[in-house]
Amino acid sequence: MKTRRYAAAFSAVLAGMFLIAAPAQAFTPDRTIEFMVHSGPGAGNDVFARAVQGLLEKTKLAPQTIQVVNKTGGGGLVAMSYLNEKKAETHLLAVFTSVWFVNPQIRKKAKVTMQELTPLARLILEPAVMTVRSDSPYKTAKEFFAAAKANPGKLKQSGGSLSGRDNTTRHLLMKATGTEWQFISMKSGGERVAALLGGHVDMYIMEPAEAIEQIRAGKVRVLATLMNKRIPSMPDISTLREQGYDVPEIPQARGFVGPPGMAADVKKYYVDLFTRMHGTPEWQGFVKQNLYEDGFLTGQGLDKFVDEYTQTMRGILKEAGIKLVR
Amino acid sequence: MEIIANLMNGFAVALDPLNLVWCFLGVFFGTVVGILPGLGPSATVALLLPLAAQMNPTGGMIMMAGIYYGAKYGGSTTSILLNVPGESASVVTCIDGFEMAKNGRAGPALGIAAISSFVAGTIGVLLLMLVAPPVAEFALRFGPPEYFALMALGLSMVVLLAGKSLIKALISMFIGLWLATIGIDMFTDGERYTFDTVELMDGVNFVVVAIGTFAIGEVLANLISTSGGQMFEVPKGVRNLMPNWQDLKDSRFAFVNGSLVGFFVGVLPGAGSTIASFVSYGIEKAVSRRPEKFGTGVVEGVAAPEAANNSETGGALVPLLTLGIPGSATTAILLAALIMWGMRPGPLLIQDYPEMFWGLVASMYIGNVMLLILNLPLVPVFAQILRLPAYVLYPLILGVSIIGVYSVDHRLFDCWLVGVFGLLGYLMRKLEYPAAPLILGLVLGDLMENAVRQSLMMSRGDVSILYSRPLAAVMLVLTVLVLVGPMFRRFEIWRLKAAEQDV
């Protein structure tokens, strides 16, 4: 372990020296670029990474081939530690999601925070909406909260892990409305939607692209969007704020992050690459198709976001009663 | 009638030369991926996602689905020949498949696996075409209590997997249930039995345990007992390398049983083909006229799980195409592909894109025929592997095992872990503990624990939720019957013996 750390430090120094020696040479990738994701094939961020890979290849923006690498394990910790060990590595980027902000705060074994890595670009924000089955008695968020108040702990919401957005949002809503309902963790997104459609739970927080199809088929009803702004493709759905509930929005952010100590010219190269990709009509089409919010952010704006988001998540986790380790 | 017209249109799409090429490429890659242990269809489909995004939707979907069901065909090969389960669903195939190979019947085992895959694959598509919407609606009635009952039914199969001693089978199953608890607990975010290592936080991988206890355990046991030379008989002549009429006749019920179980379990999101293969094996043994022969190399013990495994694909596509819900990792990637093509997966997908749906259905009929043609001639070729002398075959099994384990998550840690489970497998063999119940416990333990805790959260601690809902109740009654059945049989034998003594 120790020797490895020395080796990493040594190579960082070496890489640093190399850069000082040849400052005029601008960086361009000279071998396969790796996109690391912390989950297996088929998960949201894996599909996201492969979509970006496809777009960069299709638009010929990347001079080298790109490979998506799945480094699963430890709920994201394996990927984070791996990136941390590859100090100043020039051909390895990772997809970050909110897990990357949450992990260092709740897992003792997390060795690195987002601030210590090299955030490159935030690309998208995923909005979310609060849905019920179309034959549910609740027509508005207000009716749902009223029912939750009348029967504390009786209503049920399906969702994922406790530190995920579904549950943290629930805690914020329960606090803001003085109500209480159950949160039922399920492994896959498929099970969570099926539980709502089958009437086994009363509410589920869904992504708009999925919700819009379920609405069209008359299967679900949307009570509110959880974002501060209305979603363009769902202009009739009001926000929680408009309905009188003052809760902070929890955006699900996705973007790319590099290893610690990434040299300035390397960082600049990748930031430029994502900036150029963001400008293509193909990318705009991808964002629109998935009903994402364009969350493009780089440089100081991104650094500020990383700090603020870490603090926001910290507050929410505390509120949600999840034990913080740092 | 409308279905026939639709299907004809579908065949017009699927028989387009380019689509035929995509279909062939899909099933061909699928077969290769299936034969390689560890590397599964989800990883392969994910790898091709950026490429497929640039294809037209129908062709892309035909190819990706081809990989999905093609991989199921190949999965049995290493199970039968090397006792290395290539995927989770092939564990059950090892039980009788490898015994058949030992008895010099590797060819018929591989052949029946291919035929069974073909029959079930076709029945799976047929059901997908005919009953998808109502079955999808029915599957939605499965909430946590129903899943709990289904898992209980699955676990009750342990009495059918037990050899001579039920106690030993139960102990083996409990070890599996314990292994299933390792990792981060979803409901509390707490860690269990991780010994403060990052490696164990996601639990022990099922493939690692299966390959360790089956393949490596087998190698270790034989290294110590045999002295070398060729250990398996491989009869000469192609006729002896193919299943005969008797084999087909013995398997006919297994084809139907496996197909139906596989399809219906496949429709349930999150249940998976492993459960389907165990349940169909259990049913096969329960209704068999020669249950005592199971585990010694009976052909229907290969046919049933292979059928279940293959018709599961048709089932798994049902919630994806009719509800827009992905039930497994592979279907989740297919869902992503649909979005990339600008389609809108959801309950109205079939209505919006009939050409894609019917083209896909028709291509799956064609793909299954291609797979049969592709796989049957390979049977005699593969069977020759067993002619290798032990000093070549055992290192080969070890090599395939370790590569397989590594290719799942690319972690060296798993290669050490597989050694540990190899030792466990060896000890279990020596002490005559069956390994299959351990795998059963490991696969179902997690799902069952989740289901029971979800149910109790729903009812706020009231246990009656587990048995008061009608569907759950029916399955629990079946569970009790399965558990009590062997006891009656034992009682019957004892009664007969007592009667004889009286006379």
Throw out a few tags for this protein:
heterodimer, A: 326 residues, alpha/beta, D-Maltodextrin-Binding Protein, domain 2, 2 domains, 6-stranded mixed beta sheet, 18% strand, globular, B: 503 residues, mainly alpha, two-stranded antiparallel ribbon, 1% strand
A few lines on this structure:
Chain A is an alpha/beta fold and 326 residues long. Chain A contains eleven helices and eleven strands. Chain A folds into two domains: 2-9 and 26-125 and 252-319, 3-Layer(aba) Sandwich (D-Maltodextrin-Binding Protein, domain 2), CATH 3.40.190.150; 129-225, Periplasmic binding protein-like II (D-Maltodextrin-Binding Protein, domain 2).
SSE map:
The complex is a heterodimer of chains A (326) and B (503).
Chain A: H1 2-21, E1 33-37, H2 44-58, E2 66-70, H3 77-85, E3 92-96, H4 99-106, E4 118-126, E5 129-133, H5 141-150, E6 156-159, H6 165-177, E7 182-185, H7 189-197, E8 203-206, H8 208-216, E9 220-225, E10 252-258, H9 264-279, H10 281-289, E11 293-297, H11 299-319
Parallel strand pairs in A: 1-2, 1-3, 6-7, 6-8
Antiparallel strand pairs in A: 3-10, 4-10, 4-11, 5-8, 5-9
Chain B: H1 2-14, H2 17-35, H3 41-53, H4 57-82, H5 91-102, H6 106-139, H7 144-156, H8 158-161, H9 166-181, E1 183-184, E2 191-192, H10 206-225, H11 245-267, H12 273-287, H13 300-323, H14 329-340, H15 349-352, H16 354-375, H17 378-383, H18 390-409, H19 412-430, H20 436-458, H21 465-468, H22 470-502
Antiparallel strand pairs in B: 1-2
Helix pairs in contact in B: 1-16, 2-4, 2-16, 3-4, 3-14, 4-5, 4-6, 4-13, 4-14, 4-16, 5-6, 5-13, 6-11, 6-13, 6-16, 7-20, 7-22, 9-20, 10-18, 10-19, 11-12, 11-13, 12-13, 18-19
Characterization of the model:
The complex is a heterodimer of chains A (326) and B (503). Chain A has 326 residues and is of the alpha/beta class. Chain A folds into 2 domains: 2-9 and 26-125 and 252-319, Bordetella uptake gene, domain 1 (D-Maltodextrin-Binding Protein, domain 2); 129-225, Periplasmic binding protein-like II (D-Maltodextrin-Binding Protein, domain 2, 3-Layer(aba) Sandwich). Helices cover 43% and strands 18% of the residues of chain A. Chain A is built from 11 helices and 11 strands. In chain A, the strands form 2 sheets. Chain A has a 6-stranded mixed beta sheet. Chain A has a 5-stranded mixed beta sheet with strand order 7-6-8-5-9, with helices on both faces. The longest helix of chain A is centred in the last third of the chain and has 21 residues, at 299-319. Chain A is globular. The model of chain A has no long low-confidence stretch (mean pLDDT 88). Chain B is mainly α. Chain B has one domain. Helix content of chain B is 75%, strand content 1%. Chain B has helices at residues 2-14, 17-35, 41-53, 57-82, 91-102, 106-139, 144-156, 158-161, 166-181, 206-225, 245-267, 273-287, 300-323, 329-340, 349-352, 354-375, 378-383, 390-409, 412-430, 436-458, 465-468, 470-502, and strands at 183-184, 191-192. Chain B has a two-stranded antiparallel sheet with strand order 1-2. In chain B, helix 4 crosses helix 5 (91-102), helix 4 (57-82) packs antiparallel against helix 14 (329-340) and helix 6 runs parallel beside helix 13 (300-323). Chain B starts with a helix and ends with a helix. The model of chain B has no long low-confidence stretch (mean pLDDT 89). At the A-B interface, helix 2, strand 2, helix 3, strand 7 and helix 7 of A face helix 3, helix 14 and helix 20 of B.
